[in-house]
Protein: YbbD head domain-containing protein
Amino acid sequence: MSKGLQPNLMKSLYWLLGLFLISVVLVHVILRGFMDTTVESTYASIKDIEAKNAMRSGWLPKWLPSTVTEIIEIHDLDTNLSMIKFSFVKNTDLRLPPLCKKIEPTLPLVLPFNRRGWLSDLSLGPDTTILNHDFFQCEHEYIAISKILGKGYIWRSK
Structure:
């Protein structure tokens, strides 16, 4: 091979290598966009949770009351962020884990997922719903409970 062709061949190889690397990055970005790692599950009641053996996954807390209904659980498999929304019989005493401490809510509330109706239920809107909730922090988990409304929210932000 003549010495005059070597620089052109090297430029072509570098160009092809660059094109290959750009292609790999683009394919990764495109595939990542199609692979949603967020899972959403709904349960009608505690019986539904038990029938589906959902407590074993670890996403639902064992302290949920036996009167729990309308459970919506969302979690991300990559980040371990999660949110749970549920209803229960009004004025039910809930037995939260011993590490849970009552806190004042920090506004604005930041939930790990953007789901319609979740923040509005807890916002300082015209009905001041947030005033009807007690807030707790349990390590990396936050809980908002309204015995008056029979509503509960749990979210894990770390």
